[in-house]
Write a structure and sequence with these properties.
Length: about 775
């Protein structure tokens, strides 16, 4: 029987210290050999820190030999563990021992290339608007982009359920739940005919819009819109598929004070609205929702099968395979599981609340088979649901084994007054149970809490108000505790973080802070059009084609030469632009050089790294340049057949530039992660990105944000959690449809309110616990 300890570790509770001391104690007591430790985290950085701290603990306890033997242990990421086990057991798994890791770009290409021929997707792909896929003005994503992203998300969800995700039977209960939630239906054809006739009757009496009779622009617009909808309903077959049109016809404008309608209009409009009530029991919306759900699930399963076959044929593997294949191997081959367990004395898992179902199944299988197991996590900080993490699994484990739970009860991060606020809010955020954390730090003696109640209005005042407040704090020399000296000192910009709920708000706050003269660190969009990215792309284009005048003008005017546009244009008109020394240095050298090698040469010849130091955000510019180099390396190793299938033939610089411009998804336009920068500045990030981090001064923006689950999304559901050793066998799907009628949508949305509130509570908890000295 495993000696298991479950450690709920709240924010700043010292979980890593608990791990290092526990593991060191096991070693000293002779329970564990250092080389037989299995410790799993979710990032390389966290793994490196954990290994270093265990080593330091052993050295502090005079166990030098044990500290050296630690090199033989496995302390790394869950993906690294999966890759290691698959390599060691390659023949047992029926796979090549040296499978090549697919890049994310290759993965997307492999799947997308098969979408056009995927039969289950054809009904939705043939009429995207009918199923809610239209151009998104906010993100500028096309209907095709949005549908493709939904398919990819469905694939990720199903793969996170292991073999269960490929079971065709997983769809059945979700369809049944959809029918039950929608309720009884009537005669759709009769409803449609009645509404069409009512619309025709109104138009026969009032063939023109009432807009000219309206007394206000608002009324005029409403009557114009109503008239257009009435004509579309009466003169086309739109009523057979456009359920939003039905809903709009339930809401026609009638007489209002100051804006009367002609005699007889309200009666005819009322008849239209009454006929449109047929939407509430029309079978069409339900049929479309079922078709949409079926297409996503069966389409994703079909694509997964083709994708897996292509990978196997090519000796390829991706990051998800490292988990799913390992879980399948250990669950179906008991001799391999026992061989693996025979090599370890203990299992240590950090951030356990962030596991998705298949990760949970893999790690729990190892933990319950090891002599010793230490599982650390905090369900209150489980905010990675958008990546498939499911905190219900950790909650179920704690409920099933209450005697193994040993929570940490202290906070070493925040000023006691901040913790008093958090502890007061805790029972409200987590009514199912909240364990308060006792602060261990002394009070700073300066204010620790502020609340900014911003003015209302149509324009969002938050970015400008936040920037002004930060400027005031820093100008006044607000005091914070220096982590090295433990004494008070004046705050610096790098001591401040602004946490926003959305990336859009974060970008607006960053712009306001820059307007106040501050340097800002932010992971935002705009990488492709960032100054140094544009200059480097122009330099690459010139290295491939010295006669590319457009690239030459861009490089000369934006780059190190900083030539005035008029002067550069004059050189181009006179045919002398190619003779400029800055361009001559970029002339092609080796025609067979890789893109990465060519980019490295032009960066050197153009002096772009030195030029970065002259830009407003030099560290960001250097990070942008490094990102371009990484993309070039990824392109160089991209399989030629995948590039060709996507319409990019060859491996040269010009093909790379076209390939780069054509990429969608993958956060292709996202600036690199600011955690890799070294430049000081105020950090602006989302609540999600703040997880695991801390700052002396934290401003939490977005407490007024309202969010609900997005319609037409899938999630994992479970029959029960009584058998955690076989949790994947009980996995199913939940579907939030997107019905046009609020009455039909409400039961599905209301069923998720509790889940939405729990997600919000966890996000708020994370955001409020990042501050060390001052929370605003």
């Amino acid at each position: 029987m495993t000696d298991l300890t479950l450690v709920p570790a709240g924010a700043g509770a010292g979980k890593t210290t608990r791990i290092q001391r526990t593991v060191a104690a096991w070693v000293i007591e002779g329970k564990v050999q250092p080389g037989r430790i299995l410790a799993v985290t979710f990032t390389e950085a966290a793994a490196a820190e954990l290994k270093a701290r265990i080593r330091a603990e052993l050295i502090d306890r005079d166990r030098i030999a044990d500290a050296l033997e630690l090199e033989r242990a496995y302390i790394g990421t869950i993906h690294g563990l999966g890759q290691r086990l698959l390599t060691e057991q390659a023949f047992g798994a029926g796979r090549a021992p040296t499978s090549r890791l697919l890049t994310e770009a290759e993965r997307d290409l492999l799947i997308r290339l098969k979408m056009g021929a995927c039969a289950p997707l054809q009904e939705v792909m043939g009429d995207l608007a009918r199923f809610g896929y239209v151009w998104d003005r906010a993100t500028e994503a096309s209907a095709e982009d949005r549908f493709r992203n939904d398919v990819l998300r469905t694939i990720d969800l199903l793969r996170g359920l292991g073999a269960r995700g490929q079971d065709p039977g997983i769809l059945g209960p979700a369809l049944q739940a959809l029918e039950a939630g929608y309720g009884p239906t009537g005669d759709g054809a009769a409803f449609t005919l009645a509404l069409q006739e009512a619309c025709r009757a109104l138009l026969a009496r009032f063939p023109e819009s009432l807009a000219e009779l309206a007394s206000s622009p608002t009324a005029a617009k409403a009557f114009r819109d109503d008239h257009a909808r009435l004509r579309r309903a009466a003169e086309t077959d739109a009523l057979t598929r456009d359920w939003t049109l039905w809903q709009k016809l339930r809401e026609l404008r009638l007489s209002k004070r100051g804006a009367p309608t002609p005699p007889g209009y309200d009666d005819l409009a009322g008849a239209v609205m009454a006929a449109a009530e047929g939407l509430l029991t029309h079978p069409g919306p339900l049929a479309d929702a079922k078709a949409h759900l079926s297409a996503l699930v069966h389409g994703a399963q079909s694509l997964m099968a083709g994708y897996d076959a292509a990978k196997r044929a090519g000796g390829l593997i991706d990051f998800t395979d490292m988990i799913t294949l390992t879980e399948a191997l250990l669950s179906t081959r008991p001799e391999i599981l026992q061989a693996t367990l025979g090599e370890i004395d203990c299992v240590v898992i950090d951030e356990f609340q962030d596991t998705n179902p298949v990760q949970f199944a893999l790690l729990w299988r190892l933990a319950q088979g090891a002599p010793l197991a230490l599982i650390v996590g905090d369900v209150k900080q489980a905010i990675m649901g958008f990546q498939g993490a499911d905190p219900r699994l950790s909650e179920a484990l704690h409920r099933a084994l209450p005697g193994a739970v040993d929570p940490l009860d202290s906070n070493y991060r925040s000023d006691p007054r901040i913790m008093a606020l958090v502890n007061t809010l805790g029972p409200v955020l987590f009514p199912e149970g909240y364990d308060p954390l006792t602060p261990k730090r002394p009070e700073t003696g300066v204010p620790a809490l502020e609340a900014l109640n911003l003015p209302g209005g149509r324009k969002d005042p938050a970015p400008a108000c936040i920037a002004a407040h930060v400027a005031t704090l820093l100008a006044e020399g607000v005091l914070v505790v220096d982590r090295s000296t433990k004494t008070l000192r004046a705050a610096r910009p790098s001591d401040v973080a602004v946490l926003c709920y959305t990336t859009k708000k974060a970008a607006a706050v960053a712009a306001s802070l820059r307007a106040e003269g501050f340097r800002v660190r932010i992971q935002a969009d705009g990488w492709l059009e960032a100054p140094l990215t544009r200059i480097a792309r122009a330099a690459l284009a010139l290295a491939a084609d010295p006669d590319d005048t457009h690239a030459a003008l861009r490089f000369l005017t934006l780059g190190p030469a900083r030539l005035p546009l008029g002067e550069a244009l004059a050189l181009a008109v006179d045919g002398l632009i190619a003779t400029h020394p800055a361009l001559m240095a970029l002339a092609p050298e080796d025609p067979v050089a890789t893109v990465a090698a060519t980019l490295s040469r032009v960066i050197r010849e153009a002096g772009l790294r030195d030029f970065a130091a002259t830009l407003p955000e030099p560290a960001e510019a250097l990070a942008d340049l490094a990102r371009l180099e990484a993309e070039a390396l990824a392109f160089d190793v991209l399989a030629a057949d995948l590039k060709a299938a996507a319409g990019f033939h060859g491996a040269g610089v010009q093909v790379f530039l076209g390939w780069l411009a054509a990429q969608t998804g993958r956060d292709i336009d996202r600036h690199p992660d600011p955690s890799g920068w070294t430049a000081p500045g105020i950090e602006v990030c989302t609540w999600h990105a703040a997880k695991g981090r801390e700052w002396p001064i934290t401003l939490v923006a977005g407490l007024d944000y309202k969010f609900i689950s997005r319609p037409n999304t899938l999630r994992a559901e479970f029959d029960h959690f009584d058998d955690l050793g076989a949790v994947l066998d009980h996995a199913g799907l939940g579907w939030l449809p997107g019905f046009a009628a609020p009455e039909r949508q409400a039961p599905f949305a209301e069923a998720l309110i509790a889940q939405d509130e729990r997600e919000a509570a966890r996000l708020i908890y994370v955001a409020l616990t990042r501050a060390r000295d001052r929370l605003i």
